[in-house]
Amino acid sequence: MSxxxxxxxxxxxxxxxxxxxxxxxxxxxxxxxxxxTKAGAELGFEIDFHQSNHEGNIIDFLQGANDTAIGVVxxxxxxxxxxxxxxxxxxxxxxxxxxxxxxxxxAREKFRHKSMISSxxxxxxxxxxxxxxxxxxxxxxxxxxx
Length: 146
Ligand code: DQA
Known about the structure:
By secondary structure, this protein is α/β, with parallel strands linked by helices. It is built from 5 helices and 5 strands; from the N terminus they run βααβαβαββα.
């Protein structure tokens, strides 16, 4: 059985560190990758880390993870709020997906309050900055790793 967890990041997350640091913090995506690798290792997971600004690539990452990983931590960025295609992709795979956000989307603009993917995810973690990823990995370990 694989011990691989796929961490998938959507649009504009490649800009972390430079992008609105007052909201998203000053850690780069590379640093978040390192944080996930370290937190994953402590939990016994190998981490596959991906980012794309393109919706279709994120779907490809999800479908690929279904063959290679035991679960997904997904920060879909703005596609969270818009994408029926991501909703369908998550429904179509058999491994659990945990939705994460750096910011507390519910404390922000109204258009961020709606998620197209929450209803097909195992759970949602938001508002803890980079620790949202770590908490998602911990939650995954405690609920799915028997
Ligand atoms: C985000 C929240 C989204 O609303 C936004 O579009 C992002 C980042 C977050 O991690 O806080 O790109 O997913």
